[in-house]
Amino acid sequence: MKRMVTGCLVLIMLSACSNSYNDPLLVDGTRNAGFDYDIVQCRNLAEGHTKDALKRPAITGAILGGAINAIGSGDDWAEDALIGVAAGGGVGALEGLDERDKTRRSILLRCMQGRGHRVIG
After folding, report:
1. Helix, strand, or coil (residue 88)
2. CA dist 11 to 16, 52, 81, 119, Å?
3. Domain extents for the chain?
4. Mean pLDDT of the chain
5. Spatial contact of 70 and 80, defined as CB atoms under 8 Å apart
6. pLDDT in tens, 9-45
7. The pLDDT of residue 82 is above 70
8. What are the φ/ψ torsions at residue 119 (nearest 5 degrees)?
9. DSSP of 20-86, one letter per residue?
10. In b/e form, how buried is each residue of 9-29, taking b as 16+ CB within 10 angstroms?
11. Were 53 and a residue from 13, 17, 67, 100 both cysteine, which residue would form a disulfide, CB within 3.0 to 4.6 Å?
């Protein structure tokens, strides 16, 4: 059981390694004047809006993982519940990271477009 949980966590962590928020922006044409200044300002805006985005998914995952493992367990329910809490919290945090990354990228793109830059992705 423990090996399976560990293996699943490793696979999930590897699949969550994409970091589209930090990928360079695609611009249709040349960059406008002030692009570098605006991108710093827009990144600060995006990061400010999503600074607490990991708490809820990690806590939810920990609660669900602990409950599911404790319910489906036999004699050693406390140890299984702790494994479920750790695994569920980890999975929830990774899902939160992915969602935060997507939200930040979306805010960054809209902010740059709102400042007159021809950003397409």
Report:
1. helix
2. 9, 25, 21, 33
3. 54-121
4. 81
5. yes
6. 555 554 555 558 888 999 998 898 899 999 999 999 9
7. yes
8. -85, 130
9. GGGSPPPBSSSPPTTHHHHHHHHHHHHHHHTTTTTHHHHHHHHHHHHHHHHHT--S-HHHHHHHHHH
10. eeeeeeebeeeebeeebeeee
11. 100
